[in-house]
Fold this protein.
Amino acid sequence: MAAYLARRIVQAVLILLGVTFVTFVLLYLLPADPARQIAGRSATAATVQSIRQQLGLDLPLWQQYLRYLGNLVQGDMGRSYIQRTGVAPLVWSRLPATLLLMAGAIVCELVIGLGAGILAAVRRGKPADTTVMVASFLGVSAPQFVVGILLLYVFAVRLQWFPIGGYGTFAHLVLPALTLGILGGGWYSRMTRSSMVDVLRQDYIRTARAKGAGERRVVYIHALRNAVLPLIAMIGLDIGIFMSGAVVVESVFGWPGIGQLTWQAIQQVDIPVIMGVTLTAAVFIVLGNLLADLIAPLADPRIKLR
Amino acid sequence: MAGGLKRFAANRIALFGLVLIAVIVGAALFAPWLAPYPPNEQFFEGLTLEGAPLPPNAEFWLGTDQLGRDLLSRLIYGARTSLVVGVLANGVAVLLGTVLGVTAGYVRGVVGSVIMRFTDLMMAFPALLLAIALAAIFQPSLLIVALVIAMVNWVQIARVVYTETTALAERDYIEACRALGANWPRILFRHIVPHLVPTVLVYATLGIATTVLLEATLSFLGIGVRPPEPSWGNIIYENQTYFATAPWLVFIPGAAILLLALAFNLVGDGLRDALDPTQRGR
């Protein structure tokens, strides 16, 4: 276990190093002239030159990359082109809102996905099963921004049950979290169904039935644990989907997280901010994968550590 | 494969998806004849006296947008954008993913490790954010959008193909081929690649759904296909401020995106059921 853990952590660190290299390339090599971008349109040649020196853009590439890494380790993700401030504080101040939204989305996707999946598995081949499967296809095929605007139109504009956007109370959280959770809910309902169907066919379930356990007891006590725990243990893998979804959902609902920050940065072509968010998201994704790898064997002892 | 076709033809849901695709492809192909108006023409009578878009009516069947253009015509031409980007981006992604996956799986060694570690790295990036970064750096055009999406989407195919190739390469019949003196191109192209076709076909179909959604999302965020060229995503981007008063401008293109992605998901899922015997009976 310790050796496995150590190897996975080394792997994670290597991947993060690779990630920083890609963000470095996107940040300093591809854009036309980062120094001019930071200096602004009206800057003199001398100002641009001094910024170039400040950023180390006149150094050889490998030195530039080491500088970039050194800054990152100290929590410095560069400066925004537009807002005269560092990228790191911008991202930090927005992160809590996104994490709250993701927590809400996880609750939504599990409630929708597990509920619908169990229902479909228990009623296999009946209309309820078909309905759930059609709904799950719609859920994974629907563009998130359309789902968001639809929920906004129905529940905020027409019914006025929820505020039309913003941040602060539980009511503000419901629609964005639901929008972000629907996609995952579609996937989870299909995986739960197929996992439940597999488990319900197994010998120990037949034994439980033969011993006179009621249908409820069989499904919820005997089958559910084995079918669903391995799925829940993989929830760390969803972080990538959430990080992408957050950009769309936060821009639709005006939710002040890193997704909205990204959206604002897109409008202003503020590449350092986009890269800062991308880097932050990548860290969370790598951590999520690591977490999933570590938890999965606990939830399902048949998984061997390699 | 022949048995698979029969099984696919018996799957009504998948056939429904195929019909949907045919309708949308037809609309895209025959756009100049089907569309009642040119997609970019702004009509004076296409706006109310206050300058608001018109709801669906006899003259403009699906209403008009915020500039007084016919929504139906823009939708029909928009189908071209979605399909071109979807097929082009996904084609490049499938080609890249298959070549890299087969290479990594068959050659193994250092080359294989390097390729697979690179896919690990790509998996650590959220697809949309990476696409946003690339689209923000390169000035977006139809081609750039397609390439950006391809750069993000090849990874999954590469991993699936890699896994299958390694499994195939270890089978006894490959060993037998080698013993019989077959050279590597023969083994690779006659005995391994044909077995990958069903998997690649399934993922290629499902991948178009992902691609269509990604293009729509980029266009919705304003960094995909540039107006006035119509795309279903940028129609919503241009008109979203009207969603409370003119909801059709958001929900009709939204439904079109949903239907196209749904169609490819249904067909892809049907293909998987038909071609993969282990999945049957579920």
Q: What stands out?
A: Chain A has two domains: 20-88, 93-299. The two ends of chain A are 9 Å apart (CA to CA). The mean pLDDT of chain A is 85.
